[in-house]
Amino acid sequence: MLVIALTGGIGSGKSTVENLFRSYGIPIIDTDVIARELLSDNSAIKKETINYFGQEITQENGEIDRSKLRTLIFDDEQKRNALQTILHPVIHQQTLRQLEQLENSDAPYCVIVIPLLAESNHKYPHHRVLLIDSPESLQIKRASTRDRSTPDQIKKIIASQASRKQRQTIADDVIENDGDLTLLRQKVNRLHEKYCSLSASEQEVNS
Ligand code: ATP
What we know:
The protein is α/β, with parallel strands linked by helices and 207 residues long.
């Protein structure tokens, strides 16, 4: 099956594009969702994270306060690396497992959402990289409105991530998310058609 790795910086529009692909019935594996589940399950990963960061990152109900955790890691590179060391090997493993489960799917292609693809040391199998790219000013505006974070907090996160240029060098396809949602929908639709036709020609070669 054709595998598309979808990436982009904070607030670039990854989840919005992911939902548009999902609306076409395309299976999605989202590494952010896997991370969220790992931190909320009663998993070894959750325990390891609390051991490292201390009880200060938990809420009264014992759940990890993800917004506190996010503030902590974007203020401190060492802590950011520590969380990545705890989470990333398991996220990688689970992604591969979910991909295996899609092997017999009838879908023409699938999308793996990997926000930190350009930064990751782990190899994620894929045929094409799709970058969702937005001007930094829009990333700041959209992410701060959505998260009720300050623009300075978002700027800090942008500075900690790969640059737009670094991401552009690994991209096969780019969606410039610099217009309204109608325009974004049209761009995703065009790519959906392209991926369906790539998948069909791949199947022809293999048959
Ligand atoms: P994060 O990295 O923080 O998870 P993301 O890349 O998944 O962010 P989204 O959540 O898809 O980004 O988008 C951020 C916000 O911007 C959302 O509230 C979304 O509805 C809005 N948004 C995305 N694209 C557009 C657009 N073209 N026009 C208007 N609003 C948009």
